[in-house]
Design a protein that fits this description.
The structure is a single chain. This protein is of the alpha/beta class. Helices cover 42% and strands 16% of the residues. The chain contains 10 helices and 10 strands. The chain has an 8-stranded parallel sheet with strand order 3-4-5-6-7-8-9-10. Helix 2 packs parallel to helix 3, helix 4 crosses helix 5 and helix 7 crosses helix 8. The longest helix is centred in the first third of the chain and has 14 residues. The two termini are 25 Å apart. The structure holds NADP nicotinamide-adenine-dinucleotide phosphate. The site of NADP nicotinamide-adenine-dinucleotide phosphate has 24 residues, from helix 9. NADP nicotinamide-adenine-dinucleotide phosphate binds next to helix 9.
Length: 260
């Protein structure tokens, strides 16, 4: 079991909370209220993107929450069709969020016509100018991680990819670990069968819900997880995964769901 709530990013040494709040489709008044509820519940890591069209709501919720900016880890992402316009896109994100710098900026997807190494060079330059504290990627294959490492000598701090018990792969975990890249999973629930008997049995044994078991399973593996909800009760419950732990056997049973 791991009691750590953060993971350290290379090379910055920045601490990233393992559990964050996903904000895809969290927009408008309802979205703003959900982000306020998340900050109120205690989330200190928010995941947004230029493409989500909600950086304004995220920024306003942060300011209105009264939580200090430096206590919140903010991730945003560059849409691949903005390759070549990295600086303008990041400064637009900072303006919308109302912050001087984000904590983590990701290439949302590798550009379809290649060129991910050129985008990565721009990311490094803008990080060096202080507009983001850390840089990473999303939806990159291990081969694409190796392309950018070979080109610049610097590995992305994070790769944000689809992840759930049904996607679990020990080799993918090892490949990221070997390169010093933190694995961040997305869509933990959409990619899970929360009624599966492996999850419901473990949940009953611990007196928690299958959704909480899925989130705690990420934490046990040291994998960052960013559940989304616009429902107040779920927002709170999804953060409440630090008062119980899964046994090694529980984790192995859940890992095995990917083999079915
Ligand atoms: N990098 C990428 O390409 C990429 C792609 C997809 C997602 N993401 C990021 O990952 C975040 C999470 O992924 P996601 O939004 O796709 O999906 P998700 O977090 O797996 O699932 C969200 C869905 O699960 C429901 N839900 C939330 N808590 C629940 C609970 N305790 N029990 C049962 N159902 C629950 C939500 O409903 P309600 O909201 O109605 O409560 C919503 O329908 C996104 O918000 C985004 O920040 C990144």
């Amino acid at each position: 079991m791991s009691d750590d709530r953060t993971v350290t990013l290379a090379p910055s040494g920045l601490e990233m909370p393992l559990l964050g709040f996903g904000t895809w489709q969290v927009t408008g008044r309802k979205g703003y209220e959900a982000i306020r509820a998340a900050l109120e519940a205690g989330y200190r890591h928010l995941d947004t993107a230029t493409m989500y069209g909600n950086e304004g709501e995220v920024g306003r919720a942060i300011r209105d929450s009264g939580v200090a900016r430096e206590d919140i880890f903010i991730t945003t992402k560059l849409p691949p069709d903005r390759a070549g316009r990295e600086h303008a896109t990041l400064t637009a994100s900072l303006r919308a969020l109302g912050v001087d710098a984000v904590d983590l900026w990701l290439i949302h997807w590798p550009p379809s016509r290649g060129g991910h190494t050129a985008v990565w060079r721009e990311f490094r330059a803008l990080r060096d100018r202080g507009l983001t504290r850390a840089i990473g990627v999303s939806n990159f294959s291990v081969a694409q991680l190796d392309d950018v490492i070979a080109d610049t000598g610097e590995a992305p701090a994070v790769n944000q990819i689809p992840w759930s018990p049904w996607e679990y792969s020990a080799s993918t975990v090892d490949e990221h670990h070997a390169r010093g890249v933190v694995l961040e999973g997305y869509s933990p629930f959409k990619r899970s069968d929360l009624r599966h008997n492996v999850l419901t049995t473990i949940a009953t044994a611990h007196g928690v819900t299958p959704a909480q078991v899925v989130l705690r399973w990420h934490i046990e593996h040291g994998i960052v997880v960013i559940p989304k909800s616009v429902t107040a009760e779920r927002i709170r419950a999804n953060l409440d995964v630090f008062s119980f732990a899964l046994s090694k056997e529980d984790v192995a049973h859940i890992d095995n769901l990917s083999a079915r």
